[in-house]
Amino acid sequence: MTVSELLRRSPATRLEAAAGPVRIAGQPATALAYNGGLPRRILRLQPRDRLQVELVNRLTNSPNLRVHGLHVCPQGNGDNPFVTVDPGASFSYDHQMAALIRGLYLPCPEA
If we measure between CA atoms, which residue out of 47, 50, 36, 95 comes closest to residue 68? Predict the structure, then answer.
């Protein structure tokens, strides 16, 4: 199941960031991944949708989950560039989509 499939099925989603084995271009590799897989495909959101994501950190560094380009709040538990999730901790992001969103926006895991 891909990240986008998880996000489409539930308004509240748990993403676990961890290093692990994946396949890239058919070849085995080790990568930083969400729920055992690499982020791929598009998050399908409608105007005024609410996107809630709990990021669980199983990494040794402190990542941040950003949604560059979406018109969402950059403070608190929104798209806040100053939030980092310590190893072993979790953080609940909450994004309220604007009334008018159009285009392609890519999630940006920053570790």
Answer: 95
Question: What are the DSSP calls for 37-54, one per residue?
Answer: B---S-----TT-EEEEE
Q: Which regions of 35-111 does DSSP assign to beta strands (E)? A: 50-57, 64-66, 90-96, 108-110
At 26, the amino acid letter reads G
- Name the CATH topology of 3-110: Immunoglobulin-like (2.60.40)
Query: Looking at the whole model, is its pTM more than 0.85?
Result: no
Predicted confidence (pLDDT) per residue in 18-48, tens digit: 999 988 889 999 988 888 877 654 567 777 8
CA distances from 69 to 66, 79, 97, 101, 108 (A): 9, 10, 11, 10, 10
Rounded Cα gap, residues 107 and 38, in angstroms = 12
Domain limits, the chain? 3-110
